[in-house]
From TrEMBL, chains A, B:
<dbReference type="InterPro" id="IPR001131">
    <property type="entry name" value="Peptidase_M24B_aminopep-P_CS"/>
</dbReference>
<dbReference type="GO" id="GO:0004177">
    <property type="term" value="F:aminopeptidase activity"/>
</dbReference>
<dbReference type="GO" id="GO:0008235">
    <property type="term" value="F:metalloexopeptidase activity"/>
</dbReference>
<comment type="similarity">
    <text>Belongs to the peptidase M24B family.</text>
</comment>
<keyword id="KW-0464">Manganese</keyword>
<dbReference type="GO" id="GO:0046872">
    <property type="term" value="F:metal ion binding"/>
</dbReference>
<dbReference type="InterPro" id="IPR050659">
    <property type="entry name" value="Peptidase_M24B"/>
</dbReference>
<feature type="domain" description="Creatinase N-terminal">
    <location>
        <begin position="5"/>
        <end position="138"/>
    </location>
</feature>
<dbReference type="InterPro" id="IPR036005">
    <property type="entry name" value="Creatinase/aminopeptidase-like"/>
</dbReference>
<dbReference type="Pfam" id="PF00557">
    <property type="entry name" value="Peptidase_M24"/>
</dbReference>
<keyword id="KW-0479">Metal-binding</keyword>
<feature type="domain" description="Peptidase M24">
    <location>
        <begin position="146"/>
        <end position="348"/>
    </location>
</feature>
<dbReference type="InterPro" id="IPR029149">
    <property type="entry name" value="Creatin/AminoP/Spt16_N"/>
</dbReference>
<dbReference type="InterPro" id="IPR000994">
    <property type="entry name" value="Pept_M24"/>
</dbReference>
<dbReference type="InterPro" id="IPR001714">
    <property type="entry name" value="Pept_M24_MAP"/>
</dbReference>
<dbReference type="InterPro" id="IPR000587">
    <property type="entry name" value="Creatinase_N"/>
</dbReference>
<keyword id="KW-0378">Hydrolase</keyword>
């Protein structure tokens, strides 16, 4: 926590910016250790170029923030107080003026920027978004413990899903069973809406889980993730229910070959775009180039989709300690929809997959 | 849909604003009928003071938007296109300049406002937030059909919750069962994180569902809501598991009296603040004034918390056709946490509760 605040202060110093004002749940959690959903209330961290940082949170959450490990100042406000005005008053007592401020410009709303201006007067506005992305891209050992646990729970969810497969069951019934079992393990928050898609529904780019029933000869696609103490996992597996056609199998094997191709290239120094292009080439060479319409993957951490995006035109270079997904897919309408996705950690000389559920075609 | 666009255009005309640019999922749904979660992509409706409106959405969602009933122009963009630039180009071909624009200032981010400025050059910025609140506060018959259905499903969820109560079961197990049964009915989206809180946990303002076990003599609090075709419900019931103490019963009866007191005052023309004050007085008179720390309720519709806020200092006057919650509560640490919440429709001469689960103290 201290190290993270210090890194932000070094950045502010290098750019001669007076202070940073972080407002997204994820960046507040990253810098303070305190994770909270403020809904319509203010949650923010004010980091001056030098001196003590201040967490702004609802008064009734102060204790929790302390408990989470935040050692610096807290402005805990009531619903009748204006927390920005409280911050301004505090800074005045410290004789600190804010003539330049780095905000999360992709998160702060126009209204909130105006409220800041009302209290602080005019100031130069900088965006700290890319800097926060750069800081967060390489994970600490503490973060990796949580990411591993989140991935382990995702594996468990896929196991549960597979054990629930039965002829005539609906996608929603299986989805319900997955989340039921996760809640029994204390997990109430998913990284995103769980997907259980079968047959034609998995082959459609618009697929959403519904009352479609599992039937023999279908491929069933599961895409899900859990949030564990703020950190996200994201796994996709596609399995066979009964015997498949030759084309279904060919599509599955092509996606798997693409995923493995990209995976085995992973190590520090490799261009993210090369992974995407290599996986894409495997799919193109098999004749399915038109049926892989999305990027290869994305960064993973406090957000389920975070920096960097793993695309064919990304200029990002892989770094040791970063975590991201690899998730090629082929979707041929009325034939098959297959995606295979792992959470991947870049290690000193290569990679480790955090998600471990088998990828050879599983039959149920 | 046409009527709503027309109302926005009348507003723009009355204020001499060139156009409105709506960006929240809820306001886009309200004006177009099309509900979509764009994640990091753009979803917006551009409404000029006169002439045809334009929906901006990812290209692969165009068909769905048509299906939802949107009859006007659509800009369906690909991931490599800049939708704002596409809109700007379109307006240029129509010889339309934008010198003033009404935005959702509580939703639009600083980055996105900058992107609008990059394409459109400088323009006067107005906020359309309050106008959209005013439009949305009174529900149409079509909206009421969905709100009633959402409330009916909330009642079903409470019934499920109560039928699951058993000594030694954890809060999370009951929560899991509630959402499992809802999924079997096709409901995958809750209005907010479901709350199942028992005993001391219900009496704490920080309560979150966990591994606390149901035991005899506990009050159990359920607070939940479902999203049905975009519309939200929000219900709270507190029930007895086994015999209660006199004080627990007194607290329950006080909350119920406060809720009924506010309810029976509901009709068009009444001040929202009077409802809050009347319920608060019942609780104060019973000696629990310090233990009702929140507002009486909030508007309900496409958002689970929307305009107006039902507080002691609200100057809002109730209108026929509006829907909101009434939810007094008393939380005495280590003794009892009780809240009772209904979804209420203001009718011509009074009110109707959309949530129907019994409120006399239920014993299990």
């Amino acid at each position: 926590m201290k190290g993270k605040i210090k890194q932000i202060q070094q950045y502010l110093s290098s750019r001669s910016i007076d202070a940073a004002f972080l407002t997204s749940t994820e960046n507040v959690c990253y810098t303070t250790g305190f994770r909270s959903n403020p809904h319509e209330r203010w949650l923010a961290v004010f980091v001056p170029q030098t001196g003590e940082s201040t967490l702004i949170c609802p008064g009734m959450e102060e204790e929790e923030a302390r408990h989470a490990g935040w050692e610096y100042r807290i402005i805990g406000y009531s619903d009748t107080e204006n927390p920005i005005q409280l911050l301004h008053t505090l800074l005045q007592t410290k004789n600190m003026a804010v003539s330049s401020l780095a905000i999360e410009s992709s998160h702060l709303t126009v209204d909130r920027l105006n409220l800041l201006k009302e209290s602080f007067g005019s100031f130069d506005i900088h965006s700290i978004d890319q800097q926060m992305n750069d800081l967060r891209v390489v994970k600490s050992q503490d973060e990796l413990v949580l990411l591993r646990k989140a991935a382990e729970l995702a594996d468990f969810a896929i196991e549960t899903a597979c054990s629930e497969l039965a002829e005539g069951k609906t996608e929603l019934e299986i989805l319900a069973a997955i989340e039921f079992e996760l809640k029994r393990k204390g997990i109430t928050e998913m990284s995103f809406s769980t997907m259980v898609l079968t047959g034609k529904n998995a082959a459609s780019p618009h697929g959403n889980p519904g009352l479609n029933k599992i039937k023999r000869g279908d491929l069933v696609l599961f895409d899900l993730g859990v949030v564990y103490q703020g950190y996200c996992s994201d796994i996709t597996r596609t399995v066979a229910f009964g015997e498949l056609s030759k084309e279904q199998i060919k599509i599955y094997e092509t996606v798997l070959a693409a995923e493995l191709k990209a995976l085995e290239m992973v190590k520090p120094g490799v261009k993210a775009s090369d992974l995407d292009l290599a996986a894409r080439k495997v799919i193109q060479d098999a004749g399915y180039g038109d049926f892989f319409p999305h990027r290869l993957g994305h960064g993973l951490g406090l957000n389920v989709h975070e920096y960097p995006s793993i695309t064919s035109d990304s200029d990002f270079i892989l770094k040791e300690g970063m975590t991201f997904t690899i998730e090629p897919g082929i979707y041929v309408p009325n034939i098959a929809g297959v995606r295979i996705e792992d959470d991947v950690l870049v290690t000193e000389n290569g990679y480790e997959t955090l998600t471990k559920f088998p990828k050879t075609l599983q039959y149920y």
